[in-house]
Structures are given as C-alpha cells and as structure tokens.
Amino acid sequence: MKDLYDLFRTSLAGLRVLLAATLLLGLAYPLLITGVAAVATPWSAGGSLVREDGTRTNDPDEAVGSVLLGQLVEDDALFQPRPSAAGDGYDPLSTYGSNLGPESPELLASIEAARLEVAEREGVDVAAVPPDAVTASGSGLDPHISPAYADLQVARVAAANDLAQDEVRALVDEHTQGRSLGVLGEPRVDVLLLNIAVREAAGA
Fold first, then answer.
1. Angle, to 10 degrees, between the axis of helix 191-201 and the axis of helix 165-174?
2. What DSSP letter does each residue of 5-74 carry, written as one string?
3. Which of 30, 58, 159, 161 lies at 20 to 30 Å from 77 by C-alpha?
4. 145: buried, middle or exposed (CB in 10 Å: 19+, 13-18, 0-12)?
5. Closest Cα to residue 66, out of 144, 140, 139, 172?
C-alpha cells in the first residue's frame, strides 16, 4: 500500500512540474517575447511585410510579400527566384527540401533539366549557371538569390523592361546584402525588393 501511495505522490509531483513548465514556457514566455518584439521591432515581429512600392507595412491587406519569404515569380520580365521544393513552390504550409541525396539520379536529372532551362532563358552557356539557380534551399522558402544568379538575369530583365543594363545592374548592387555581422553567410539579393525596384524604374 505504501508503494502505491509513493507512486501516487511521485506522479502528482511530476504532473505539477509539467503544468508549471507548460504555463511558464509554453504560454507566459512566448507571450512576453511576442510583446517585447511587438514594441521593440514591430515590423519584424509582424512578418517584415512590404507594400507594392517597397515601403514597410504591418497590414497584411496592403502587403505584396515579405522580405523573409520567397514567392513564385510568373512574370518573365522580372528576376526569378531559386527553385523551391515546398509544395508547388514557396508554400509556407509545406516547407521542406527535396530530401534527395547528392547522388540521387532524380536530383541530378532535375538539376540538369533546370540548368538547361535557365541557360536557354538567359541566353548563356550551361557552365555559366550558378548552383542556386538550379537547387532549392533547405526550407524551400529562401527569398534570396546569389549576386551571381542576379547578374546572370540582368540582360533579360533590362531588355524586357526597356532599361539599360547598367541601370539594372545598379539596382542589383543596391539590393545586395553583405554577410551578416560581416562574417556569417554569403552576399545575397532579396528578389522581392529587387523586382519592386525594377518595376518602379520601368514605370510599371
């Protein structure tokens, strides 16, 4: 009987700890951090949304996208993002990579097909196509492309929008971000902000 009583006391103590941890770490802490973020950095806390003119907004109804979330670009006159394995492409409800290994025949075939497609679209040799033009990010939602991939698209975008290549290249340079803290990651270009700038330069 004593063993049963001890078991009950131990279980009850464990249940109390579980409930306390749930309330503290699952409710109070997230609410506190969300509140602090909403006051300290409201735009970032709201999803880093931007309007059609590239200005910041916290209203989802005004937003055309987020600088943190990639999206499909169906207009051939604009810069194209990297491929996405998230659902049908950039689906935030199906975020994942392809999970195919580096020696997967399926992955190699898809990369080769994408390389040929990009080379034909941009009018360059297949050897000039950078890796991020043919491979998806781990999440499938990466909003950035490499400066090399952006530079590859300059001629097409300039011609399609009746802009000088130097003007479009200057927009690419303007929207190229360096390494975080000067050492983390690689230089990158946010496709959404760049395309907004292109449309503004073209008077669209």
1. 140
2. HHHHHHHHHHHHHHHHHHHIIIIIHHHHHHHHHHHH-HHHHTT-EE-TTS-EES-TTT-SEETTB-----
3. 58
4. buried
5. 144
Q: Are residues 82 and 176 in the same domain?
A: yes
Say yes or no: 91 and 19 in one domain: no
Residue 166 identity: D
Does 24 share its domain with 95? no
Same domain, residue pair 163 and 99: yes
Global pTM?
Answer: 0.79
User: Structural domain tally of the chain?
Assistant: 2
Q: Amino acid identity, residue 48?
A: S
**Residue 93 sits in the same domain as residue 141:** yes
Instruction: Based on the fold, state whether residues 85 and 170 are members of the same structural domain.
Output: yes
Residue 7 has pLDDT above 80, yes or no: no
